[in-house]
TrEMBL record:
<keyword id="KW-0812">Transmembrane</keyword>
<dbReference type="InterPro" id="IPR039910">
    <property type="entry name" value="D15-like"/>
</dbReference>
<feature type="domain" description="POTRA">
    <location>
        <begin position="224"/>
        <end position="296"/>
    </location>
</feature>
<dbReference type="Pfam" id="PF01103">
    <property type="entry name" value="Omp85"/>
</dbReference>
<keyword id="KW-0472">Membrane</keyword>
<dbReference type="Pfam" id="PF07244">
    <property type="entry name" value="POTRA"/>
</dbReference>
<dbReference type="InterPro" id="IPR010827">
    <property type="entry name" value="BamA/TamA_POTRA"/>
</dbReference>
<dbReference type="InterPro" id="IPR000184">
    <property type="entry name" value="Bac_surfAg_D15"/>
</dbReference>
<keyword id="KW-1134">Transmembrane beta strand</keyword>
<protein>
    <submittedName>
        <fullName>BamA/TamA family outer membrane protein</fullName>
    </submittedName>
</protein>
<dbReference type="InterPro" id="IPR034746">
    <property type="entry name" value="POTRA"/>
</dbReference>
Amino acid sequence: MRPLWTCLFGLVIAVLVGCSSKLDDVRGSDAYIKDVQFVGVERFTEKELLTYLHMGETSILPFKERYAFLPANIPVDAKRIVEVYKAHGYYDAEVVSITPTVKAGRIRLFARTPGERRPGKAALKVVVREGEPTLVKNIQLTFPAGRPGIAAADPKVGEVALLKRVALETERAFEVPKLNRSVEQLLETLRDAGYAKAEVRETAEVSPGVGATVRFEIRPGPYFKIGEIKFEGLGNVPEKYVRNESDYAPGKPYSPKLVKKVEAATYGLEVFDTVTIEEVPSETKPGTIDLVVKARPAKPQSIKLGAGFGLDPVRWEQRGSLLYTHKNLFKNLTRFDLRARAGYAELPSIFNPQEHGPIVKFEPTLRQKGLIEKRTVATLSPAFELGIWEGYQFYSPTMRAGLSRFFSRFVEAELAYNFRFVDFFNVSPTLKGQNSILGLDFRDPYTLSYLEPSLRLYLTDSVLRPQNGAIIGAVYDIMGLGGDFSAHRVRPSIRLYWTPHWRITFAGRFEMGWIVPYGAKGGAPIDMRFYLGGADTVRGWGLRRLSPQVFPDGCTPGEADCRGIPVGGNTMILANIEARVRATKMLSFVAFADGGDVRAGVNQFALGQFNYSAGPGVRLDTPIGMFRLDVGFRLNETEYARDQKIWAVHFGLGEAF
């Protein structure tokens, strides 16, 4: 039997040889192209021009495309360059020269044949004389003879509106790609206005060096509206609820976008594997197009099991989870989700468990759209939780019942009723002290009954995964409908997203919070006060550590072993900004900056004590969710920073906001 080190050495050699073979795969050439230099090229960037050619620059990364140096391709690429320029209006362009420089490769270290060499490296210098472009001198729209034009009938597709959809511009270069794009955009405009059978024919009279006249003949054809919507293949899904998702469409002008919207709304019910729509001209109602929605039902039930852990400077936890889903309970599109989680938590860490205990959460949820009104979603969610925070453990049965509705695509309103019962145990003597700043805010046990109206305005390209736009929202909790507390709790927020390039997204969030006690039971329970710090707020801090604290009797803040207990505050302010850079389809990198503060007083702000942090992060987008790892560093020292580490590591799921 061979020694282990011999096996490992063989494995390393095999990997090196394997990587070498990938590096040397240049399709039979003696060299690969390492660098391409363009001289005299101003119309295109180097990257744009290379997309049309056989030549390209080979990356050192093994998974990138490799470009072999083949002399036979040089005249072919020279002709391509000339044709590319002609397609973009440069009819006098010519390739002056393409000069290769080839450097031989080194002799292989592990070669099968003595003296065998690796492929060499080639550099190409391409000299181009562009000349002057031929400009567009005139753009004309013509309509069928004997027809007065459609401008009077529908301004959306009148001459002025259609000219705005032409990609070509006068006194700019005549470009064939822009000519083709103009035809596509004109057709899109006509069909979205109800002209389902519209045609556009383009002609161009080009005199190289003089100018070009472009004509678009517009044939709108008959005007159509959406007629009847029929459904096939629904299975056990009741047609009534499916029809509710598209009942706005009949009678509206035909539009491919509207058809796609109906398709997306039907698929969005999440009970079908596939949804397709067939467009059929009506036989009984001229000028209408009926839609036949063909669906294939999905399996209504699913179950997911998982295991995970939480990592934070002041809390570690290990947990297992279960998610059971039935998407068509009672055969009326009632959705049932059962989320169950059980595990164990250690504070501040698994290696130093000063406080520790089990964590359990059991949360069944029933959700039904159309039960009360066809656009309104009713939700009922009883839950039970057993948990631990710094200073106490607790168990809590809760109940939440809510109604939510979208008013247009942009506005979502919700009204929820909440009931909570919380019983604390293993409570720190510090929280029970008569001199605690909590006053009446710590009651053991307590009950709470409150209403929670909320409003969100989605000015974004997507509700679930926004890339551009803003989400403006506010949540208002009215405590005091019964129980041990009465207070107003208000949380306005705004989130901003901007994606200048598909790989780069800038995101920002600003949020504030007020708790205003009123009446004889004025106050808010300790677990509903405001806390910052952790993976989703100010990431240079541990979970909930950016907060007012109470200290044991005889303990002076700043001394060794004097650790305060966060108790939350009545006033909060939070700001975040992120730059998200996508490296691959699954992997992204993030740079972030956070700031925030929490104060014990009502409507109390201390901007001079604002807390800042910044750092890098990594995101891995997988089929089961996005995993997030952030490292935050505190940028300043404030009164809350005593005995706090200057950095914090956070592991979580999903984006921070």
